[in-house]
Amino acid sequence: MIHLVDIDPGNWRLGLQVAESQRKYVASAPWLLARAYGYREYRPNAFVIYDAETPVGMGLYYDCPDLEAYNFSQLFIDERYQGRGYGKETVKLVLEAMKLDRTYRKVVICYIEGNNAAKNLYSQFGFVETDRDRDEIVMELSFD
Predict the structure, then answer these.
(1) With a threshold of 0.90, does the pTM exceed it?
(2) Measured torsion, CA atoms of residues 121, 126, 127, 130, in degrees rounded to the nearest 10
(3) Is the separation of the CB atoms in 89 and 54 below 8 Å?
(4) What is the sign, positive or negative, of the torsion defined by CA atoms of 117, 61, 64, 73?
(5) Counting C-beta atoms within 10 Å of the first and last residue's C-beta, which end of the chain has fewer, N or C?
């Protein structure tokens, strides 16, 4: 069973990474942690994705008051565990947590153009493209 665990001193150096061909699309674990620190005033939620006791990926979301939304900023599944539905299950868990939190009624995400796996994953949940910024594509999902 997949579950999310807050990143802490005991689980932040797990060696999780995506395949070399995906690195242009996905931030590394150190970058995810740096971003969580950079957004520390915006209730960042940096987490490790576990399947039972096995770490399979990491993610991050935080408040974005300027957009009155959550920013689902980072998500990656380690190259050894891709293609098993962990990304989809993680998105489902994160959206449920946001709905329970009830601070915002909207979620924004960005992905790098060409990352069709991300586009397809987020589209399955109803995210729609709303903007482009250079090579980043912005998508939104409303809880209404």
Answers:
(1) yes
(2) 140
(3) no
(4) negative
(5) C
